[in-house]
Amino acid sequence: MERTHARSGHLPVMYRQALDGLRVLGNGAYLDGTFGRGGHARGVLELLQARGRLLVMDKDPEAIAVAEREFGDDPRVSIYRGSFADLAHWDETAAGLDGVLLDLGVSSPQLDVAERGFSFGKDGPLDMRMDPDSGQSAAQWLASASEKEIADVLWTYGEERQSRKIARTIVARRSEQPLLRTAQLADLIASVMPRGDNKIHPATRSFQAIRIFINRELADLEAGLDAALARLKPGGRLAVISFHSLEDRIVKQFIARHSKAPPANRRMPIELAFTPTLLAIGGAQKAFDEETASNPRARSAVLRVAEKLGVGIRDSGFDEAQAGSDSLEQIPNPPSRLPAPPSGGAA
User: Fold this and answer.
1) For residues 120-124, average pLDDT
2) Is 79 in contact with 58 (CB distance < 8 Å)?
3) Phi, psi for residue 237 in degrees, rounded to 5
4) pLDDT (tens digit, 9 = 90+) per residue, 153-195?
5) Distance in angstroms (rounded) separating the CA atoms of residues 304 and 238
6) Which of 17, 36, 146, 197 has the smallest number of CB atoms closer than 10 Å to its CB?
7) Per-residue pLDDT tens over the stretch 215-270
8) Across residues 97-106, what is the average pLDDT?
9) Do 234 and 98 meet the contact criterion of CB atoms below 8 Å apart?
10) How many angstroms separate the CA atoms of 302 and 117, rounded?
């Protein structure tokens, strides 16, 4: 769930595999939609020539400050604060991209700073927003959400088996005292979890679930994949690093949906024509053993790469007039599986 700090002793997760997957061209245009502290971006920039372009995005103002400080004077680089879900609305992408990299999840600097409220291991304000200037904090949402809403989020995004019990306890506890600190929430969750030989902290799944929900991470991923496909040039590469099954499932299904014809339906009298717009480049890649030995956070990383085929939107059967030219047709997860996003949530 984390992106490694580029200034630490480790390279970013799956650094070499991600750059190989992007197949960087010297004069190409590339977008890093999750700048973090710029580890992957630096690698791309080193491979670019004078006419190459690097576009970087991030929700986090601290990440954008690093990008501006380190890359702001490079004429090849453009910087945008915002979610990669909106990449097709950034004018800099209108000319097309030769590659898009998404390194999903929360970055190590976000986890390591207690004041950001991501970590149950460091007491701090219960915030969890990647963009602290937008949307509800975790504390604000937990103060007003219903017991069912909380339970649904914990189960859907964290696969927490004790979701109902935890939600019930949260609602009961907040009537006595507001939940404002990460340590409060972590202790509350630990107090209601069954005792056992758990290898992970009892609050791990719940913190993950709340963070994903507060930041609209899966909704942003769905929108970002569509936007990336819309902006990639034929031959351009999409490389996505995910850290848990919910993210990887969305990426895997997206690539399959645009690269493989849907199963035949015997009830349909006429078989619908299918023109693939993506080519999967290999399957799921895992970090090499030497990387996981030195960086345990890489153990759960999965990289998937796909290449846009040489077809236009009209060739693929996409109705540009119906859905707009900035993004491809949205294909969300089934509504019954995902709780409604928080009102005024992070963009």
Assistant:
1) 75
2) no
3) -110, 140
4) 999 999 999 999 999 999 999 999 999 999 999 999 999 988 7
5) 8
6) 197
7) 999 999 999 999 999 999 999 999 999 999 999 999 999 999 999 988 777 676 66
8) 93
9) no
10) 26
Place of tokens 């890359």: 71
Tokens of 255: 């690539």
> d(Cα 301, Cα 241) in Å, to the nearest integer?
6
Which amino acid, one-letter code, is at 341?
P
| Model pLDDT for residues 296-321, shown as the tens digit of each residue | 888 999 999 999 998 544 333 333 33
List pLDDT tens digits, range 19-64. 999 999 999 999 999 998 889 999 999 999 999 999 999 999 999 9
Buried b vs exposed e over 229-260: b needs ≥16 C-beta within 10 Å?
Answer: bbbbeeebbbbbbbbbebbbebbbebbeebbe
CA 224 – CA 214 distance, rounded (Å): 17
